[in-house]
Each structure stands twice: as C-alpha cells, then as structure tokens.
Amino acid sequence: MYRDNSLIPLEAMRIAALGVLAETPMRYADVAADVRRFASRIVGPSLDLMGSSVEVLRAEGLIAPVEDGADPALGLTETGRADLITLLKAGLRATNTELNRLVVALKMRFLHLLPPHDRREQIGLLHSLLTSERDRYVDLQASGGDPLFDHWLGFEIEVMNARLSWLERFADRCDSGEAS
C-alpha cells in the first residue's frame, strides 16, 4: 500500500483474484482469465496492472485447492479472506486515475463480501472523495476564465453531482438490505 493506505496496482489485482475466489472456487486458468478480463474492461490493457501469479497467492497461503486432481479448483483460505477484507477496506486516492477507477470498480464488484457497516464506510469514503473533487472543480469554475473551459467544468460538476446522488441512493439501499 501507499503511505496514505491506498492500494498499489498489484494489490488491486489481488482484490480481483481473491474476490472472484471468495464468490466461488475456480480453476487457475479461469481465475487468471477473469482478472485479466475485468481489469482490461475497466482501464484497458496495462502493463502496470499485470497481477501477481495465482501461484504467488497459493505460496502465501491465501488460496488453496478445494479438490484433488491435476487441475483442482482453488478457493480462499481464512488468511485469504482476511487479506481480501483488508484490501477492500483500503483507502482511495483521487478518483480520476486509471488505477482508482479500477479500485472503485473492484470495491463495488465485491462490496457484498463486506459486513454492512464496512459497506457503508466504503460508500462514505467514495462520497467524500467525490465531494472533494467536485468542490475543487466548483472553486476553479468560480475563479472565472475561458467560457469554453467553464462549460466543460460545468459538465464535469454535473457528472459528479449525479454520481453523488447515485451513491446516496445506493447507500440507502445498502442500509435497507436491498443491495445485498
């Protein structure tokens, strides 16, 4: 993790692998394909996001075979589940980077694996980051400038306001149990 408790690219890819295995045991090749597919759909192909080998997760005791055979399905160990929860609860950086888009997508994809109070905390963290980002754009727009740039800033502010409204509704759904 970075000093601010946000995730480095390798840890984002760990969430992807551990999260999918928390949902259901899978074979090695299927885990690797799922992680690669998800990451490339969110941020496109990226060498920075080449995940650690599933074998590394196995060597660290985070995953283990759940059946016998030459190509057994893999599942999470208790240590792996604890590591996944720690990673899912990690902080976020500014939301406008490729890595953070991936981390946010992974957190949302596996949000159901967290206890309700941790879900709410993660949604609150996202809300706080978006609010700060929107406030910076509003401040920039208030300083005046080129009308075309101000028009673009207005659009970006509208998008962030829509995301904030969606997060508030989503948080209410999580509280009521609808989103679990």
Tags for this model:
Monooxygenase, mainly alpha, 180 residues, 3 strands, Arc Repressor Mutant, subunit A
Write the layout of secondary structure elements.
Elements: H1 9-23, E1 26-27, H2 28-43, H3 54-59, E2 63-65, E3 73-76, H4 78-88, H5 98-109, H6 116-142, H7 147-176
Antiparallel strand pairs: 1-3, 2-3
Helix pairs in contact: 1-2, 1-4, 1-5, 6-7
Identify the CATH architecture of the largest domain. Orthogonal Bundle
CATH level-3 fold name of the largest domain: Arc Repressor Mutant, subunit A
CATH superfamily of the largest domain: Winged helix-like DNA-binding domain superfamily/Winged helix DNA-binding domain
Q: What is the mean pLDDT?
A: 87
Strand share of the residues? 5-15%
The total of helices stands at 7
Return residue spans where pLDDT drops below 50 for at least 5 consecutive residues: none
Q: What is the name of the CATH class of the largest domain?
A: Mainly Alpha
Strands ordered across the widest β-sheet: 1-3-2
Rg calc: 19 Å
The end-to-end distance, rounded to whole angstroms, is 28 Å
Largest sheet: 3 strands, antiparallel
Q: What is the H-and-E element order? A: HEHHEEHHHH
Helix content: 55-70%
Number of strand elements? 3
Structural class, judged by helices and strands? Answer: mainly alpha
| Shape category | elongated
Provide the number of structural domains.
2
